[in-house]
Predict the 3D structure of the following.
Amino acid sequence: MTLDARMIRLLLELRREGITDPRLLGAMEKVPRDLFVPAAFTDQAFANMALPIGYGQTVSQPLIVAQMTLALQASERMKVLEIGTGSGYQAAVLSHLCRRVYSIERHADLLKEAEGRFKTLGIHNITTLKGDGSKGWPQQAPFERILVTAAAETMPDALADQLAVGGSMVLPLGPQGQDQALLRVRRTESGFETENLGLTRFVPLVEGAVEMAQNRVAARRAP
């Protein structure tokens, strides 16, 4: 099966699952998913399934990417914060739907690989940062939209604080090893409104990962 045929089959499957938004489908068609998975999995790149990318991380199945992106309701003028760059696939899809994507990843090697993919595809509206995603990116806040691609057990206060009034955040919330709630959180003038979009399962959002790694390095260097 040719690459184009595999992409067409994936898009048709997404349509059968209820993903009919033409802007979203057009954005996903522009992103070659086989570029965002390890070489050992390129033959499965256009299957509707999650695939491992190393460091205990995965690239989400296309249906989940589509559902979360659709729930985000990002427009071409918006500034979006993504927590968890991973392979870069979700950020690449978002790059075709909004003005600028700010994406944070705690694994340096994954981030470097994702940056290389963005360069190969000529995507210039993604800005990346190696860091603790649970802290967000205060220097660039506020954001009209925030997308979190890892699950926290409680709402990350720093991310909520960086959401613009009138903005929305889509994130999985709940304990690890169990189904989590996919939530859309809207910030209003008086607080936050939460909508449950269904069940999902994501890798954990690890808080303080960068600081812990730095402390381990410092400890090894200490006399």
Notes: The chain has seven helices and nine strands. The first helix runs from residue 3 to 16.
